[in-house]
Specification:
The chain is of the alpha/beta class. The protein is built from five helices and nine strands. The strands form three sheets. Strands 4-3-7-8-9 form a five-stranded parallel beta sheet, with helices on both faces. The chain has a two-stranded antiparallel sheet with strand order 1-2. Strands 5-6 form a two-stranded antiparallel ribbon. The longest helix has 15 residues, at about 30-45. The structure holds adenosine monophosphate.
Length: about 170
Amino acid sequence: MSTDLAAKIRDVPDFPKPGIVFKDIMPLLADPAALKEAVDRIADWAEPRRPDLVLGAEARGYITGGALACRLGCGFVAARKPGKLPWRTVAAKYALEYGFDSLEVHADAIVAGQKVLIHDDVLATGGTAKATVELVEQLGGEVVGLPFIIELEFLNGRERLEGYDVYSLIKY
Ligand code: AMP
C-alpha cells in the first residue's frame, strides 16, 4: 500500500529564521512505512542510472543517502562543512542569502570515471546541490542523477542544475 509521504512532512514556520517555512522530514524518517517507501522510490528511479556511489550533503542527506547507497549496492560519500573531514579534501563554495559557505569531500572519495548520485533531503535554491556537482566533477566523477525527497519549486533550484537529471518525491 502506498503511503502519503507529503502527510509526513511537518511545516515549521519561521525556522531557522523569520519568513522561512522549514520542511521537517523527521516524521517521515520516524515512520517505518514512509521511510521505506521514500528510499525504495528513489532507489527505483536511480537503479537504471547505475551509480557507483551516493554522495549525501550534510547533514540530513546522510540519513536517507546511507539507506539509498545500501539498497543500490553503492558506496557512500559524505560532503561536509569546512574543517570537519580528517583527510585531504577538495572544496566548493556556494552562495547563501548573505555571504558564502562551502562544502568539502575527501580528495580520494571519488575515483575519476565513477558514477555518482547526489542526494539531499530538500532542493531549495539549488546552491548546495550545485556545489556538490562541482565537487564530484573536480574529482573526475560523473553525476548520473540528483534525487531529493522534497523540491521547493518556487525557488527554481532546477534552473541551477540545468543539464542534470533531477528527481523529487514531493513538490511544493
Ligand atoms: P539550497 O542550497 O538553497 O538548495 O538549500 C538546500 C539545503 O538547505 C538542503 O541541505 C536543505 O536541507 C536545506 N533547506 C533549504 N531550505 C529548506 C527548507 N525550507 N526546509 C528544510 N530544509 C531546507
